[in-house]
């Protein structure tokens, strides 16, 4: 297992370096001049602008700028925001808990939705339960997150007035209010996530139910619950875990829209605000942290493979 972990970590580092190069290059190819953001509404002369470019290193070739930025980022220094003049690392750390909370709750909601629906649909294949499960999954996949969010706000916040339409309160300040504010964002983000998982759970369970070991387990006199949860589900979890890792990136993409719709002060909204204001250091820091998150999620998935199937851990 240790060799398996070291092999995955050896792949992790070069991928992270490649992502950092892509993030830095693509953002610097985007339209907009960061000097305009630094000077704000002031209109200094050419000499002042040239001095600013030299001070921030904008006159250096992009490879030199990247190496300077990457060397600082490697020790946790992501630079300073052009807009707020705050350290990007501090801003990211302030916004990160909101996105972590939203993502974790959305994953939990998706799993609570997907596992029962997918398992029941596989066990009752061809029945009305299977039809309802497939309809719910198709509806969740086909509806964009921003449209789901707007509908939820209109119905539960503006019409029924059960929950607030937007805003955020830290769980350390008021847990009850935090949960009330997070209900709609979690449903918005987790519905599509759970719908996708439902289809994979159903397909994976159906495949496992047709294997020889299931007939052997039933022949030994095991109950239906013992066969399903003790044997079939464990075998079906490997492809399901794969989807969990893949869908993490899409989950973060949905978090950008969800945080904007519900005015959540998270990483997604930070990235959007930074892009609109051409705040390069904040953009780079936010995108890099989200990319790191996806890589860590896939690393966890790789480790879970070794737990679910020891043969993979020895390979």
CATH topology of the largest domain: MetI-like fold
CATH architecture of the largest domain: Orthogonal Bundle
CATH class of the largest domain, named Mainly Alpha
Number of helices: 13
What proportion of the residues form beta strands (DSSP E)? Answer: under 5%
Specify the CATH homologous superfamily of the largest domain.
Answer: MetI-like
Main sheet record: none
Mean pLDDT: 81
Structural class: mainly alpha
**Unreliable sequence segments:** none
Give the tally of structural domains. 2
> Measured on Cα atoms, how large is the radius of gyration?
24 Å
Provide the helix percentage: over 70%
Question: How many β strands by DSSP?
Answer: 0
Shape call: globular
From the N-terminal CA to the C-terminal CA, the straight-line distance is 9 Å
Element-level helix/strand string: HHHHHHHHHHHHH
């Amino acid at each position: 297992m240790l060799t398996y972990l070291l092999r995955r970590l050896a792949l992790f580092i070069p991928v992270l370096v490649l992502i950092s190069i892509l993030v830095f290059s693509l953002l610097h190819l985007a339209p907009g001049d960061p000097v305009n953001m630094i000077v704000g509404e002031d209109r200094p002369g050419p000499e002042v602008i040239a001095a600013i470019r030299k001070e921030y290193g904008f006159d250096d070739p992009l490879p030199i700028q990247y190496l300077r930025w990457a060397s600082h980022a490697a020790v946790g220094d992501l630079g300073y925001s052009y807009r707020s003049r705050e350290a990007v690392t501090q801003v990211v750390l302030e916004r990160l808990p909101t996105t972590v909370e939203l993502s974790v709750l959305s994953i939990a909601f998706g799993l609570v939705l997907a596992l029962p629906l997918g398992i029941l649909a596989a066990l009752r294949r061809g029945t009305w339960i299977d039809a309802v499960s497939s309809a719910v999954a198709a509806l969740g996949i086909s509806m964009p997150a921003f449209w789901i969010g707007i509908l939820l706000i209109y119905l539960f916040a503006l019409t029924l007035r059960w929950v607030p339409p937007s805003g955020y309160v830290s769980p350390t300040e008021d847990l009850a209010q935090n949960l009330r504010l997070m209900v709609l964002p979690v449903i918005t983000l987790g519905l599509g996530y759970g719908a996708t998982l439902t289809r994979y759970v159903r397909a994976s369970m159906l495949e496992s139910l047709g294997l020889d070991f299931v007939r052997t387990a039933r022949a030994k006199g095991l109950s239906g619950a013992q066969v399903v949860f003790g044997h079939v589900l464990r075998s079906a979890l490997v492809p399901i875990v794969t989807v969990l890792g893949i869908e993490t990136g899409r989950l973060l993409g949905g978090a950008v829209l969800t945080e904007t719709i519900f005015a959540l002060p998270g990483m997604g909204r930070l990235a959007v605000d930074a892009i609109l204001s051409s705040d390069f250091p904040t953009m780079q820091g936010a995108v890099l942290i989200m990319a790191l998150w996806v890589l860590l999620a896939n690393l966890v998935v790789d480790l879970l493979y070794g737990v679910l199937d020891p043969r993979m851990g020895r390979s």
